[in-house]
Amino acid sequence: MQRPDWAPETIDIERPSVARMYDYYLGGSHNFAADRAAAQAMVAAVPEAPLMAQANRAFLRRAVQFLTEAGVRQFLDIGSGIPTVGNVHEIARRSAPDSRVVYVDVDPVAVAHSREILAGDARATVVQEDLRHPERILAHPGVRGLLDLDEPVAVLVVAVLHFVSDEDRPARILHTLRDALAPGSYLVISQASDEGRGTEERAEAQRVYRSTDNPLWVRSRAELTAFFDGFDLVDPGVVWVPQWRPEAPENAEDAERAVFMGGVGRFGG
């Protein structure tokens, strides 16, 4: 296919990208035929796939709103993905115009589009880096130049941990991020869970994502809860994302169909 102007020459448009598949689930336009084919295969295996992306995006919005109400003004969004309506800086600034946001993603398309959107914004930036290298994220000039780690920061690890294998030691990654935080900071996590899913459905979903550069690692509620080691979980704890402080009770019905579980934890102080 013809390469569009917004696609960097360095990316392989014939290989599915999880960031562009997520963009497709959300109804975005920054995806290629290979991404759409993989996303459609995922929908065939797990029909709730578009719902899970939408429910997760709504969880992110509610979590950021909660954080600004709690006084947080600094956000580190790791695995931020391709920009769509309702980015963290847009949500936070509705109630806290002085909020500062650093977006981090490894996907060059996501980073390129973030740079376009954030051009001229002195209180938001994007860096290209991998969650699996938290030390490099924390030391990056783009992070250090905008965020004061001696003050509370909300670290958002939303819809990305299921692409981090057990061999990459996700708990160690989160501990490294935690140890850099000031008291009063927060951690927000969501990821795909296999609770209530049949073996065949889980295997098919994992098969689809093996065609990308990011195989899928689904986890249980207990495993997600353990990731909040050193944090005090905010009520209602780790739950299906529609159940996390829903705006209306009916929004949490059939919550397990959203596939994602998530939670928010507060660090010390």
Summed up, the domain count is 1
Distance from N terminus to C terminus (CA atoms, Å) equals 54 Å
Characterize the overall form: globular
Contiguous uncertain segments of 5+ residues: none
CATH class: Alpha Beta
Structure, explained:
- The protein has ten helices and eight strands.
- The model has no long low-confidence stretch (mean pLDDT 86).
- It is of the alpha/beta class.
- Strands 1, 2, 3, 4, 5, 6, 7 and 8 form an eight-stranded mixed beta sheet that branches.
- It is globular.
- The longest helix is centred in the first third of the chain and has 21 residues, at 49-69.
What keyword list fits this structure?
37% helix; alpha/beta; globular; 8-stranded mixed beta sheet; single chain; Rossmann fold; 269 residues
Mind sketching the topology for me?
Blueprint (H helix, E strand, L loop, with lengths): L17 H8 L7 H13 L3 H21 L4 E5 L9 H8 L4 E6 L2 H11 L5 E5 L5 H6 L1 H6 L7 E5 L11 H10 L5 E8 L6 H11 L11 H6 L5 E2 L5 E2 L19 E8 L2
Parallel strand pairs: 1-2, 1-4, 2-3, 4-5
Antiparallel strand pairs: 5-8, 6-8, 7-8
